[in-house]
Design a protein that fits this description.
Strand content: 25-35%
Structural class: alpha/beta
Shape: globular
C-alpha cells in the first residue's frame, strides 16, 4: 500500500520522508486483524509536532526506522477483527491515537506510560490504511474527513488542558501563547466556546491579525522581551486566570508573571525547551497552580468531538497536501510558518 514513511532518523525531518507504494498493509492472510481492532481506509491524516519528534527521535525511546508516523486519522472501516460488531463496517470514523495501556501490560511502575500512541509507539495514520482498536474510534457520520482529521488530537489536547485540568469557567480570562499552532488555535476555539476574554501572543504580526479575526480580544507581539506587563495592563493589572502554553523555556517566566492571584498555568509540551527559569516566590505567594496535561481519554474525546459534529466548532486548516506531496507537508510544519493544521489527503 502507499505510505509516507520516515525513512531514517534525522533533522531536518522533511528530507527523510519518502512516499512508497509497497509498504505492507496492516492486515494480510499472514497477519489477520487483531481482536477488538479494525482496519480503516484512510481518507485524511493530519500532522502534529509529534510527527517531527518521531522523525528526529523521541528521547528515551528506541524507535526503529523506517516507520509511519501520524496520530490524526479519519477514514472508512473496511475490515473487522474478532469481537467487533459488524455494524461498524463502512462507517466513517475519527481516531483518538492515545490507547490506554492496561496495568497488567506495564513492565514497571512509575516510569511506565499510561498510553501507547498510534503514530509514535506504533505505526500511524500517514498511509492508505491503518489499524486501531475499536474502543479508540468514534463514528462521525457524514462529517468532512479533512476537517475531522484536522480537529481530532489538538482539540482533545486543548480540551483536557482547559476543561479537565484548568477547570475553565465561563467568562474567565485566558492567555494562549504561540498562536498559529494547532493546540493554540484549538485552545482559542474552546476559550471562545466558554465566552472567555482571550489574549494571544505570537512573533508574527500576521498571525496576530488572523487570530483577532477568529475571536481573540487582545494580541501581544512577542519580540523576545518580557511581555507580562503588557498582558497585565490589558487585564487592568489583575492578570489572567489561565495560561495555555506549549512553547516552554522562552516564554515560561512571562507566563507565570502574567497570571492573576490564584491563576493556573497549564502546559502540554515544550517545543522550545524544558528548563526555564521561574519565580517560585510568585508561585506560592500568589497561590498559583502549575499543571501538566497530555492527550485525553475517550470520555473527553466524545465531549469535544460532539461539538465538531454538531457544527459548533471547526478547526483552522493551513494547507491540504495530496499524499504524494507528504514531504512538502512535513517541510511546511517544520518551517513553523503555518497557521492551523496541515492535512494530507489520501
Amino acid at each position: 500500500m502507499k505510505a509516507a514513511i520516515v525513512s531514517k532518523q534525522g533533522s531536518p525531518v522533511a528530507p527523510n520522508i519518502k512516499v512508497i507504494c509497497d509498504w505492507a498493509p496492516p492486515v494480510s492472510s499472514a497477519a489477520p486483524c487483531s481482536p477488538g481492532h479494525v482496519v480503516i481506509r484512510t481518507e485524511a491524516s493530519a500532522l502534529n509536532q509529534l510527527d517531527l519528534w518521531v522523525g528526529r527521535g523521541v528521547p528515551g525511546m528506541d524507535l526503529t526506522y523506517p516507520r509511519i508516523s501520524g496520530s490524526d486519522g479519519v477514514g472508512i472501516v473496511e475490515a473487522l477483527g474478532p469481537g467487533v460488531d459488524s455494524s461498524w463496517l463502512n462507517k466513517r470514523v475519527i481516531l483518538n491515537a492515545a490507547v490506554s495501556v492496561p496495568e497488567s501490560a506495564k513492565p514497571g511502575v512509575e516510569s511506565s506510560p499510561d498510553i501507547r500512541m498510534i503514530g509514535e509507539h506504533d505505526h500511524g495514520t500517514n498511509a492508505e490504511r491503518f489499524m486501531a482498536p475499536i474502543s479508540n474510534l468514534l463514528d462521525i457520520g457524514s462529517a468532512d474527513p479533512v476537517e475531522a482529521a484536522a480537529f481530532g488530537l489538538v482539540h482533545l489536547t486543548a480540551w483536557r488542558m482547559l476543561v479537565s485540568r484548568a477547570r475553565i469557567r465561563h467568562g474567565q480570562s485566558v492567555l494562549i501563547t504561540g498562536i498559529g499552532g494547532g493546540v493554540a488555535l484549538a485552545a482559542l476555539n474552546i476559550a471562545r466556546h466558554f465566552c472567555c476574554t482571550i489574549i494571544v501572543t505570537s512573533r508574527s504580526k500576521e498571525k496576530l491579525e488572523r487570530a483577532k479575526s477568529l475571536g481573540a480580544h487582545h494580541c501581544v507581539l512577542d519580540t523576545g522581551a518580557d511581555w507580562s506587563r503588557e498582558v497585565r495592563s490589558l487585564t487592568g493589572k489583575r492578570g489572567v486566570d489561565i495560561c495555555v502554553d506549549s512553547i516552554g523555556t522562552p516564554v515560561h517566566l512571562a507566563c507565570i508573571k502574567s497570571l492573576a492571584r490564584g491563576g493556573t498555568f497549564v502546559t502540554c509540551g515544550t517545543t522550545a525547551g524544558n528548563d526555564p527559569p521561574t519565580d517560585l516566590a510568585r508561585v506560592f505567594w500568589n497561590q498559583l497552580s502549575i499543571l501538566g496535561s497530555t492527550m485525553g481519554d475517550m470520555h473527553e474525546f466524545r465531549e469535544v468531538v460532539s461539538l465538531f459534529t454538531a457544527g459548533n466548532m471547526k478547526p483552522v486548516i493551513d494547507q491540504v497536501f495530496p499524499a504524494d506531496r507528504a514531504a512538502e507537508a512535513f517541510a511546511r510544519l517544520e518551517s513553523a510558518q503555518q497557521f492551523g493544521k496541515i492535512v494530507i489527503r489520501w
